[in-house]
Design brief:
Number of strands: 18
Shape: globular
CATH class of the domain at 255-410: Mainly Beta
Helix content: 10-25%
Distance between the termini: 66 Å
Number of helices: 9
Oligomer: single chain
CATH topology of the domain at 255-410: Coagulation Factor XIII, Chain A, domain 1
Amino acid sequence: MSSELGAAVAVVVSHVVKSYRIYQRPQDRLLQALFRGKKRFFEEFYAVKNIDFQIRRGEVVGILGRNGSGKSTLLQMIAGTLEPTSGSVVANGRLAALLELGAGFSPDFSGMDNARLSASILGLSEPEIEQKLPEILAFADIGDHIFQPVKTYSSGMYVRLAFAVAACVDPDILIIDEALAVGDVKFQTKCFRRFEELVASGKTIIFVTHSVEQVVRHCTRALLIDGGCLIDDGVPREIANRYLDMMVGAAPPIKHASSPQQSGGSLLSAIETRAGYCSGEYRWGEGRARILDATLIREGEDSHCIQFDTRDRVQIQFAVEFDAPSERPIFGVFVKTPDGVTVYGNSSRNLCPPSEGRRVAAGDVVSVTFSCLLNLGCGSYVLSLGVSEDSFGEIVPLDRRYDVMQFEVVNFSGAVGLSDLDASCRVVLM
């Protein structure tokens, strides 16, 4: 690690490769040493393949990827606990890392001793450690267990202490590997509050997670790793959508040619002509079915609308045309906030009687209606639609249109937040 970087740059990862030698038999290691490289007795496995990027100060970077894609290996190299096979990693400033359970603590030392040792390794002087120690102990909140060897700790206590040390030593760069929310609900709330404080103070944060909502909500940038390679780097919402695409095993995003349909206020028109349509939607699927149109209709009315009052009952209607037969089609809706928090999601498989999950033929056009009570707070919301097929237990996306339409909710009660709990208040003189 070095501090010989520009003031605006926190981390530089330059053409980093991490490979491991895989020996099929124990004796192959000896043979490899005896032959001094003249003959090869191993297979080479590349966990990270030529990854190259920079992170600027104050960026909050989320790393997404499937299990085994190389995310944790990359974090370990940035943290300095693992040396790259080739390439280099340079960090500018005090770096604290919360990696896999067990990293950094001596099992025979007490929690107190490990907290002091970890703070010392992170570069704090003795006076600084004494100043920070009460904050660390209060944050971890594990009571008298702090004086016991950490080998006696539960996994939750272990991570609580590790997070407390990493978050309280005032790092310039904080690295978190799938441990942003640990422990019970009370401690999770404390973790997220501390995370937000670090973000507000301009710290550089890099974290691995499987939660696309955390990435979209908290990050200024996202990386997508697969097969040890950096395959995308950009806006969190776009990277999150591509990650979801990867996780469901869908084909790359495809363009659907809309069939000419009748115009008008009811289905069928073209969804692209509807008020509230989001041209930046993310669309993918196999293409054997196409979502042609969608409308939002307030109960008792018959025209498309994108502004509602809290507790309005709304019908989400959409039309799907099938270009091939489907034995068990599934239709779904998701409502999210603009920053990616899922408010609600469900599908016809959960809500419809089994008799309505019938086979459709090629050329069929299906009308789907979800009826919802909008117990939502004031604000903007984004609608996503999808049609999939249940193929012997595997969900195959046929057409998914993420973030396809925006609508507004007005709350005249003065309530704030994502939901309207329809509260009442009674004040009585005692």
